[in-house]
Amino acid sequence: MNLIEGFMKKFEDHKFKINQLPRMLFILSQQKLIETLEKHRELELRNIKMCEAKEKEMKSLGAQIMFYQIRMDSIKHAYILKTLKDILQAESPDILWNYLADKYIGQVASKKELEIHAELEKEMIHAHEELLKKIDNTGLKVILQTIVEDEKRHHKMIMHMINNLLALDP
Fold first, then answer.
1. Contact (Cβ atoms closer than 8 angstroms) between residue 166 and residue 110
2. Residue where a domain stops, chosen among 33, 57, 90
3. How confident is the model over 110-157, as pLDDT tens digits?
4. Closest Cα to residue 169, out of 19, 9, 4?
5. Does residue 33 contact residue 88 with C-beta atoms inside 8 Å?
């Protein structure tokens, strides 16, 4: 079993404490990880500029919306990558996984908030899917379908957080 398989097995079995995770991740060179995150962030920043230019060039509103969506995702990705890099460069990268500081009360409150948001995501998915059934415009359907896919991805992320990360002992 290689390093990744071992990590995934432990993750799936939930047999490690969340504060052990950073130590597992830093078996790789921390500096190399920081450099890689920065390179990925630079790619996202280039994509933001390119999409912004394409939005202005395109005559098709559908194409403009598509480039807008991609640009917004790249803005989000660039922010996440910068935040991760900043955390890794900080004195203690454990801050990334330090929700345990809240102990049990904070964890329960976080879980409740996430459950509420998961329900909202489900409502949005349902509403958009119902709308998709009632329209004939192919271009509009394609754009709305990307929203549905985003909402499903959001719901999946929230449920993963609830079922896996918050299921660990405080």
1. yes
2. 90
3. 778 888 889 999 999 999 999 999 988 888 888 889 999 999 999 998
4. 19
5. yes
